[in-house]
Structure formats: structure tokens, C-alpha cells
Amino acid sequence: MSKNISALSFRKGIEQNYFEQMVAAAEASGTAETPETVQRLADEYLVGDAITLGAVSAYDFLKTENAGKKVHLCNGSACLVARTQHGLHDTFARHFADDEIGHICCLGRCHEGGAFQYQGRNYSGQSADTIANLCQGGPADDSDTYRTGSLLPEPILTAPFPGIDAYYAPFRQLIAGGDRDALFEELKLSKLRGRGGAGFPLSFKWQSCREAAATPKYIVCNADEGDPGAYIDKYLMEHRPHSVLYGMMVAGWFAGAETGVLYIRHEYPDSVRIVREAIEALHGAGLLGDNILGSGFSFRLKVVKGAGAYICGEETALLASLEGARPEVRVRPPFPTVEGLFRKPTIVNNVETFANIPHIVAHGGAAYAAIGTPDSTGPKLVSLDSNFATPGCYEVAMGTPLATVVNELGGGFRLPVKAIQIGGPLGGIVPVSHIDSLTVDFESFKKAGFLLGHAGVVAIPADFPMIEYIEHLFQFTADESCGKCFPCRLGSVRGQELTAKARTDAGYRIDPALMRDLLHTMQSTSLCALGGGVPLPIQNALQYFKDELQPYFAADL
Ligand SMILES: Cc1cc2nc3c(=O)[nH]c(=O)nc-3n(C[C@H](O)[C@H](O)[C@H](O)COP(=O)(O)O)c2cc1C
Ligand code: SF4
Predict the structure, then answer these.
(1) Which residues surround ligand 1 with Cβ inside 6 Å?
(2) pLDDT tens for each residue of 215-238
(3) What is the reported pTM?
């Protein structure tokens, strides 16, 4: 059935894609989940109304329950541990009815430890004046400023942008007479690995799509950065958008694709605007369109705005979303490089991954691989939340001591901290005692039983109850599960119930065997790394914060 939906969606192509029609309907009337809208969309796209309803009901910002909401407060992990959510809610409760206040996860203002969205714009939650002004219909400052910097002698991802002409000079040379085999050799030499979490080798992925026979092919940029604590992709899109677009254009030239799509999350309205402006500028410079600069290479870029579903960061769910299907994870193989968007060969890479490509094209793979460690090459951006003294988004070479990031870039913690969670809700919980033994690279984290992931960092204060943090992780998974497989769909809810009960009912203790069994089942039988990944930080917490958690359990942990 889902192959039929892909084929029906392909008829209208990416320009009139089904998902965008759903989003447009919700923007016009507050929800796409009404019988009239569902029927109209289903008729237009020849997709059944049950399929359409299944799709729209999966997104926070298409659902009926969102229709009356006037303001959305960030409830991500960084805002949770900053303990600002209740205060913010109380402030808004003075201006809005309770059912007009919704939640959103996460706005990528983790450096502020409190944020909200109002009439499609994001604001800091720190200023009571901002809120009062807005509620009285006045103007308010929505700027998002944070520290940035690089420890590299010559910054790559944070390097100043020299203007389109200079920046795209190597790209112009590439499409004028470049050799794809030679580029493949450089990509292999660079040993660049994906930055979206899994660290998959880029050259292998690109070559697989290049070799796929079917056409057309697509390049998709995964800009759904949903990990609370991460604002790395947001930084790149809002401050270095051309690095990302350049990377996608090279991918298109290499693999033989003529269309690139950036799937940018709803929660980042500025990223959507700035990337669209950058695409316009490229058109103006003649670097997008048909037969670019007479090279024979044609390429177009399109931005699609998400609608509030964390699972759309998982690449197959993202592709299903773009097709207007319910964003459920698809079984692999076939991999997207063979059967991706509309079941056509597709390269899906993370924003930060694409942003590394201009440097490789300009300076070669060996120069790139000289940065970092032998197996984790190149630079990495890390983002630090508001519990650091100097939060921000910083560039380091892979292999940099984590202590350097925490103490030098982050300036240490601004309050006593017991652990950091790095890599989002599926990343490890690292006790502060382990910070000195880790370096920022895939291997160091994996060897120590953690996960680098996308490298957004949330510092958990010493007085923040670990049982509450575990409950938050289960709750997040329950809220965001695509529901396709039982271990995740049911296990996350059961986990949330167990921890909530132990936390609030003095007479109840969790059976540790039951918890271990639950975590093992989720880890070993979930289809994707949402249900399969969340047990890792919970196991870290149970291991390193045993004494604190023991009172909530009925037997020895
Ligand atoms: C639950 C889940 C959420 C994910 N979220 C993101 C995301 O927000 N951004 C991202 O680039 N990759 C995310 N990924 C990883 C993607 O599935 C995919 O591996 C990635 O986009 C590939 O790009 P890369 O090779 O450049 O890392 C997620 C994976 C899972 C299982
Ligand atoms: S693990 Fe969760 S999110 Fe992943 S496929 Fe299963 S239900 Fe969907």
C-alpha cells in the first residue's frame, strides 16, 4: 500500500508535494484534521481519506488539538533542567486561558534555558517584558544570539562567508570539467562520516546512489534537528547556509540528481526564511536552474517546512513525510540510496555533513582527514545549554578532549552539575567524573558505553532528580514514537508509567528485573534507534546514579 502512496505522490512531484498541502491547510485554519480538509486533500491526490487522516494526525501542528493554541512553550530537556517551564507557564497563564497554551519541543534556544513560539516567531523565555509586550500587541525582540567560536587554527564550519563569487569558485570549476571518479577518491580520502548521529561513511552512501540505475534521483538534507540540546544545524542554516547548499549541489552533480530538498523543522522559522533567501541568491548568481553556467548540470533546491514530529528526523520517516504518507519508519533494505524519495535513488545527509563538503572540494580529502582522529576525521560542532557558564555553538577538531569543551569553551558549569547528556535523548548520560576520560569523537564515546550522536549537550544539575530525567526520556519517546513497532510504542509508555508512579507514590517501588527486561526488549527488538536507543541513557543513569535511584526500586539495582 505505501508503495502505491509513493507512486501517487510522485505524480505531482516535489513541487506540489502532498505534505505541503496538508501544512498549508493547517496554516489557513489552525488544523488539517477536519473531515472536510481530509476529504478535499484525499480527493485531490487520489489517496484515501483514512491514509490522509493517518498522516495529518501524526504531526503536532496539523492536529485538531493544536487548533486553539496561541502560544507554545518549549518543553525540551534543556528547558526542563533549567527549571524555567513552570514559571513561564505561570506568566503566560496571566495572559491566556490554559487551553490556549501549548508545548513545543524544542526551539533550539537551549543556550537560554527557556523559550516560546508566538504567532510563528520564536522568543527567549527569559524576559518578562518581552512576554508582556507581545501580549499587549507590541513589538518584541526575537533575536537569537549566542557565542560561537572555533578551536581550529583555520575554522571550517564557522569560517566567515566570503561572498557567493569567491565561495563557489571551486564549485564552478567542478561542474565545468570535474571528474566524478576523482571526487569519489577525495571523498574516500576525507573519511567524512555523517554527523546526524550514526557516523555512516559519506563516500559509500554517495557512490551507492550514483551507481543506482533508476531516475530521477534526489538529494535530501535532513534539517529536522529534533534533539533537545542541539542547535548545531540551526546555527549552520542561519549563519552559514551556503555551506549546506553547496554540499547539496555537489551531491547532485556527483550522483546525477537534479532536485535537492531541505526538510527544515517547523520549530526553526528563521532557518526556513534564511535558507530560502540563500537559494534565491544562488538563482540570482546563475548557480541554480537549467544547464548551470553552460555546464550541462541542472539543479534546483526546495525548502519544505516540517510540522512538528521528532520522528521525521529518522531518514525513512522523513521521506515518507515528504510523500504525504504517515511519517512511519520504513524497514531497510532497501536503503534510500536505492529506494528513497518516491522510491527513487536518494542521498539523505544531515545539515552539518553537507557543510563539510565545500572544504573537501576546495582543499582535497587528505587535508580534511589530517584534522581529527584516524577514524573520526574533520571538525565537529557542539552546542552547550544554559547550565554552562558560556553556552554557545563551538567548532572543535574531532578528538578534542571533552574537558576542553566543557571547561574552556563552556567556561565550566554555572551551578553544580552531576552529569551531561550528549547527543540528544538517545545519547549517553555521562557522569561528570567521566568528562576527563572522553574525547569528542565516535570511538571514544562508543568505547566508554555512551554515544556522541549529533553532540548537543545538556548539563543535568546536581539537584535535578535522576528519576525525573528518566521519566522525561520515556515520556519523550512515548510522545514521539511513530507507533510502527510494539516495543517502542508500548514500552515507552510503560516505562513512563513505572517511573512516574515510583516518583509520586511513596508506597510503590519498581521491580528492577521488570525495568531491565523492558529496556532489553526495547533495545533489541525496536525497528529504529528511537525505541532501540533510549535504553542507553537510562542504563547509564541506572549504572552511574545507582545510589540516588535505589530508593525507587524494590530490590538491589
Ligand atoms: C529517532 C531518530 C531521529 C533522528 N533525527 C535526526 C535528525 O534530526 N537529523 C539528522 O540529520 N539525522 C537524524 N537521524 C539520523 C537519520 O536517520 C540519518 O541517519 C541521517 O539523516 C543520515 O545523515 P548523515 O549520514 O549525514 O548523518 C535520526 C535517527 C533516528 C533513529
Ligand atoms: S522504534 Fe519507535 S519510532 Fe522507531 S519504528 Fe519502532 S515505533 Fe517507530
Answers:
(1) 194-198, 200, 222, 224-226, 311, 313-315, 348-350, 353, 528-530
(2) 999 999 999 999 999 999 999 999
(3) 0.97
